[in-house]
Amino acid sequence: MDRFVIRGGRPLRGEVGIAASKNAALPAMAAAMLTAEAVRLDGVPGYKDVRTMARILRHLGARVDETEASLEIHAADPGNHEAPYDLVRTMRASFFVLGPVLARLGRARVAFPGGCAIGVRPVDEHLKGLAALGATIVVSEGYVEATADRLRGAAIAFGTPSVGATENVMMAACLAEGTTVMSNAAREPEVVDLAELLIRMGARITGAGTGTVTIEGVKALGGATHPTVPDRIEAGTFIVLSVLTGCGIAVRGARRDHLQALESALRQAGVAMDERDGALVVSCEGRWRASDAVTQPYPGFATDLQAQWMVLMALANGSSVVRETVFENRFQHVPELVRLGADIAIRGNTAVIRGVSRLSGAPVMVSDLRAGAALVLAGLAAAGTTEVQRIYHLDRGYDRLIEKLRGVGAEIERVPGPPV
Ligand code: UD1
User: Fold this and answer.
1) Do 301 and 265 contact (CB within 8 A), yes or no?
2) Checking phi first, is residue 12 left (phi over 0); if not, alpha (psi -120 to 50) or beta?
């Protein structure tokens, strides 16, 4: 297993370009199963999760061509309706194929998903939504099997605004007979991006980005070319890194309007975010202030930036509280940050962080994708050498991380094999 060796504590300076969003690309790839024509997604990097989804789509009978600049998926005549466990288990987003394959073929069988170990993460809202569209759902032997001759539009009120369930049901409803109205839908930019792709393919969708999304079913969808939305979590990660390392990193290609909760949390901490020459920059004078954060569905503070924010608070002036309300087990980075010298205590879903003046390098272990990002940030801010183990989690969703970090002056190397 590879690891990162980081020599931290240096100011970083330069520019970083943001990739297309992983969380938008994955459902977009699944959406390509809805049509017999080719769907091209521009600018999607070869994240490991993207390659996993490509393998699932190929298994279902689609052709997937990956080039550096785009990803083309052609599901002319998918011969298979099953996504097996050994492909699905590493990535929760595999479950996105359930809705599209069901809508296209009238039958889909998908293993219960795995993915980041950040809580129970049920799929009941996905299944409830598809059942409301008329699917018969059978769960057995670790698989979900959904069948329906023709899906029918319905009114669906989600119990919780789940990103994945909103996307899965939205895709299926595009080919249903009649109108579907989803209420308490997730409002994340990735939901909006998926709706924009589906509309390019011929779907009739209104209200994406609000809590109520209306989909008028159509008989068939066609091909499309789509520029995937920039990754707001990658952008947020580099913005936090910039604050930690002297405010010298310009983040290019991000959407500022997708980062408003982070911007206002930074403002509370005394850090101004601005746009300069088309890139996002931060300005700080000395140490930033402690500032509380509560994770919430969009437009609230993103749970996918909680771990990175905690690194910032670990080095802030004063004490702060971070509350995680989206997932029930998302503090696995905390013991690792404590190894680096952070002063953090957990009480239930709340972390109390007393800012310290410095962190110092130590060996740490990654538990999930965003925890991994936080540990890399902490290592870059800490004095001395930090070894980050189990970095395969980071490969799932950060595009060319080491090159981008080196590009702003970070001393980081990827060392193959087990730690010595
Ligand atoms: C997506 C993102 C993930 C992000 C999360 C929340 C992708 C590929 N992943 O995950 O990075 O952290 O949104 O912003 O886009 N829930 C249920 N029943 C369900 C589905 C979800 O109770 O059927 C709960 C979950 O346990 C969780 C909450 O709803 O507590 C939010 O989950 P959800 O929005 O579905 O997250 P994902 O789509 O899995």
Assistant:
1) yes
2) beta
What does the mean pLDDT of the chain come to? 95
Q: Which two tokens stand for residue 20?
A: 């297309």
Find the angle CA(50)-CA(26)-CA(349) to the nearest 5 degrees: 105
- Give yes or no: 116 in active site: yes
Residue nearest to atom 9 of ligand 1 (CA): 23
Q: Which residue has the tokens 């792709």?
A: 197
| Residues 359, 342 contacting (CB under 8 angstroms) | yes
Helix (H) or strand (E) holding 126: helix 124-132
How do residues 326-352 score in pLDDT, each as one tens digit? 998 899 999 999 999 999 999 999 999
Distance of CA 330 from the midpoint of ligand 1 (Å): 12
Whether the CB of 167 sits within 6 Å of ligand 1: no
Residue nearest to atom 4 of ligand 1 (CA): 304
Is 92 a pocket residue for ligand 1 (Cβ < 6 Å)? Answer: yes
Closest protein CA for atom 13 of ligand 1: 163
Instruction: Please tell me the chain's helix, strand, coil percentages from 3-state DSSP, rounded to the nearest 5.
Output: 35, 30, 40
pTM beyond cutoff 0.90: yes
**Adjacent-strand bridge partners of 176:** none
Kindly give the number of the ligand 1 atom that is closest to the alpha carbon of 22.
8
